Amino acid sequence: QVQLVESGGGLVQAGGSLRLSCAASGTIFSINAMNWYRQAPGKQRELVAAITRGGSTNYADSMKGRITISRDNAKNTVYLQMNSLKPEDTAVYYCKMEVQIRSWTGLLDRWGQGTQVTVSS
Question: 104 CB contacts (<8 Å, ≥6 apart)?
């Protein structure tokens, strides 16, 4: 079993910052890509940021320049630093990891439970 636990969400004023964390625990051989998604009320879930095991990153245009994704492979943890937040960034933020449980198994997608980010105007 692999579990992802997120933290760091909350209520912040427009222009403020938040740092989200997502830690994986359980039987883990390695983790490939780590991603952050978000889902606002009435909207589809969208990819916000992604980072490969080697550290290559990719960002959604809507948040590029305001966010930084990073990871600590030793801790099986991914972070999302968000700055200059806007009310339209309000959403539930989810982490997703591509997890390899054993050296001989394939990659499995695992999701966190989501953390609410609310940006007030």
Answer: none
Alpha-carbon gap, residue 75 to 82, rounded angstroms: 21
83-113: per-residue pLDDT in tens? 999 999 999 999 999 999 999 999 999 999 9
**C-alpha 79: how far from chain center:** 6
CB neighbour class for 30 (10 Å; exposed up to 12, middle 13-18, buried from 19): middle
Q: Which two tokens stand for residue 96?
A: 């997703």
Using only C-alpha atoms, the chain has a radius of gyration, in whole angstroms, of 14
> Which amino acid, 57?
T
Residues 18-29 have pLDDT tens digits of: 999 999 999 999
